[in-house]
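Please check the following.

. . .
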Amino acid sequence: MNEKIVLKGGMLVDSNTGYRIVKKDIMIQDGKITAVEKVINVTDAKVIDITGKMISPGFIDAHTHCYTATSLGVKPDDLGIQRGVTTIFDAGSSGPENFEDFLNKDIKSSSTKVFALLNIASNGLINTRYELADLTNIKVEEVIKTYEKYTDYIVGIKARASASTVGELGIKPIQIAKEIAEKLDLPLVVHIGNLPPRIEDVLNLMGKNDVITHCFHGKKNGLLDENGLIKKETKSAIKRGVRFDVGHGSSSFSFLTARKALEQGFKPDMISTDMYNDNMNGPVYSLEMTINKMIAIGLDFKDAIKAITQTPAEIFRLDGYGTLAVGSIADLTVYELKEQQKTLVDSDENIVETSKIVKTEFIIKSGEIKKVTK
């Protein structure tokens, strides 16, 4: 799109300002940010007055399921631009046997930018349980070949580490996933849940910029011990640079767990939804709702914005994303921090009341204005 647009009077919340709220104008053209100045006065641009509104890099939801051939899958734009998110990740819905189908069916046809975490299971989540319970369903060379063919789309490796996925195999599939990720120099993203495998064994495998998702679930086998204290293996993983993602989901986010973690200084590196067809109308709803839940229980607003912009872009090496720097991709989210009463519910039906929320007004995707409709 060649139209030149100037956003005037916005309050920038971005890594380039150190997340200090700074009033500046932004000019975009040809899908890129071309200027960020205190005042931009031009006569040949469409001017949009956003005085008093916040503006950040386009929000990134790093855990969704948008491969519509699976029973979980929702069309990318329903999870992305319609809900105020410019970029989403599909978290392992496809594997090497069906990634190309996912690419042609859903990724290429969406306006939302879609990156993929490639499941090590051959057909991803076509079968939603026990995809890693049989080692013959993990074809290492096919995973490698698929990544090498589609490096523009695949940004990480995904494996689920819980009883309903690995069966009797315990930690073995996760060890294989780690070997693949290391060989390809990609982050490994691991879903955690019920035993087996033991969370301690999973944590000990993870390295710098690998990601544990569902970090605040309320089940046993979590990152906190039975007394609500951070486990020593969790602390060691944090020191090694392992990253932690909320990954809300239908049953994987507990206010009680998250509060205990925050009280001990354990903050999530990323906030994501794990949104799919069974939870998009509750309890998850949207990335906006998920960050509001984290802010309501004590996470600083600026840390929440960083967790859905800069951090996922850095972990997954998304050049031009997660920043408002000149030359970066013109993906932006315009929103307000509003005083408004809201009742929030976690995955375990616990309730928190809040009086301050982030409310998205509109987004700009690759230089085009998109309304938020959901």
